[in-house]
Amino acid sequence: MVRYIIADDAPFIHEIIKNVMPEGMFEHVGSAYNGLEAIDLVKRTLPDVVFLDFVMPAKSGVEAITEMKQIWPDLKIIGVSTVDNTGIIQMAMRNGMNTFLEKPFTKDTLFEALATVGYVVNSHQKMKESV
């Protein structure tokens, strides 16, 4: 099972991602609402994937990437943001982000991002029920 965390200061993003992830294939192991919480959560859970917002309080996602990769080099980081600044995205990639998912996103674009980091999801797999 693929273990993942969500780090975003918008609670509704956590719910959207959790509700789209296929049952039995992915396990949500934690949520963080700022960059410092995200780093701590990576230390404690050593997930396979983190969905990471760029703009959060305490420490930005872009800043948190480097520390997360130092803690867990195999971590796959999917940047999730409304930021469409090429310079910021390139900086995040240099820091260790694997791929970028622009908000708003669809189930298909989320699955494409997962495929980019090595986790292929069939879009017809059973989804979790809405909360």
How is the secondary structure organized here?
Elements: E1 2-7, H1 11-20, E2 26-32, H2 35-45, E3 49-52, H3 61-71, E4 76-81, H4 86-95, E5 99-102, H5 107-116
Parallel strand pairs: 1-2, 1-3, 3-4, 4-5
Helix pairs in contact: 2-3, 3-4
Q: What order do the SSEs take from the amino end to the carboxyl end, as H and E?
A: EHEHEHEHEH
Estimate the helix proportion, in percent. Answer: 25-40%
Report the CATH superfamily: Response regulator
Give the C-level CATH assignment.
Answer: Alpha Beta
CATH architecture heading: 3-Layer(aba) Sandwich
Number of domains: 1
Task: Give the neighbour order of strands across the main sheet.
Answer: 2-1-3-4-5
Q: What share of the residues does DSSP label as strand, in percent? A: 15-25%
- Overall radius of gyration: 13 Å
Give the number of helices: 5
Unreliable runs: 126-131
Based on DSSP secondary structure assignment, what is the total number of beta strands? 5
- Main β-sheet description: 5 strands, parallel
Q: Describe the global form.
A: globular
In terms of structural class, how would the helical and strand content be classed? alpha/beta
What's the average pLDDT?
Answer: 89
CATH topology value:
Rossmann fold
The CA-CA distance between the termini, in Å, is 22 Å
